[in-house]
Structures are given as structure tokens and as C-alpha cells.
Amino acid sequence: MYDYPNFDGTQACHGEDLTGPAARAFAGAAGADPAPALLLCLDCAFLTECGSYALTHEVYGVWGGTTEDRRDEIRAANGVPAPSSTAGDLDQLVTALSHETSYDRLDRAS
Ligand code: SF4
Question: What pLDDT shows up at residue 17?
């Protein structure tokens, strides 16, 4: 099980404009175009760490250069079950709160 990435503020998505095109994809908003977020991930120093975490935890939206669908494909191709919602409860809570905050900000901005 991979630990929550040690984000230090240098990750490419840090400070991303919450009204910008990438924000909805990072937040896992339905119908969001993932391309702008995926482009940011490509130049991120946390790409591997972030992607590994996302494959082993129940997270939403773009993480580590992958969409939710892509992570499902990778897991299926490698015979890895989807992460249990009970795994890493604290990490899940932190992630959920982070995304919830993003949604709240998006709602206020629209
Ligand atoms: S890999 Fe992508 S989602 Fe992960 S920290 Fe970097 S920019 Fe953000």
C-alpha cells in the first residue's frame, strides 16, 4: 500500500485555478475534460508517487496522470481489485475533504 504523497507545494496542480479547465477534472467532476489536468501531470515531479497512491486508494478525478477509467483499466489488466473503501480510512478522509473543498470553490466561482 502506498502512502499519501508528501505533497510539498511544488506539485504541478498546486494552486491550480479552481475556475480553470483542469480543476474540474482534478476534482472528478462528471463530464469534465481530463486533457488539461493530464497535461499538468506530465510535468509533475510527483507523477509516479501520485499515480501509485491513486491505484491503491479510492480517489476520484485525475491523479498521477491517470483518470478514474484509466486506473480501472490498469487494475483490470494486472488483476488488481479496486481499492476497498475501508483501506486507508484516514487517507480517504483527507482526500474526500480535499475534493469536497474543490467542489465548494467551483460552486462559489460559478
Ligand atoms: S501528478 Fe498530477 S494530480 Fe498528482 S500532484 Fe502532480 S499534477 Fe497533481
Answer: 83
Q: Cα of 42 to ligand 1 centre, how many Å?
A: 8
- Residue-wise burial string across 70-100, b where 16 or more C-beta atoms lie within 10 A, e elsewhere: bbeeeeeeeeeeebeeeebeebbeebeeebe
Q: How many residues in total does the chain contain?
A: 110
Sign, Cα dihedral of 75, 77, 80, 82: positive
Q: For residues 37 and 13, is the Cβ–Cβ distance under 8 A?
A: yes
Instruction: Report the alpha-carbon angle 104-33-15, nearest 5.
Output: 50
For ligand 1, pick from 4, 8, 10, 47 the residue to mutate: most ligand atoms within 8 Å of CB: 47
DSSP three-state, residue 47: helix
Ligand 1 midpoint to CA 63 (Å): 6
Judge if pTM exceeds 0.85: no
Q: Which residues pair with 66 in a beta bridge?
A: 63
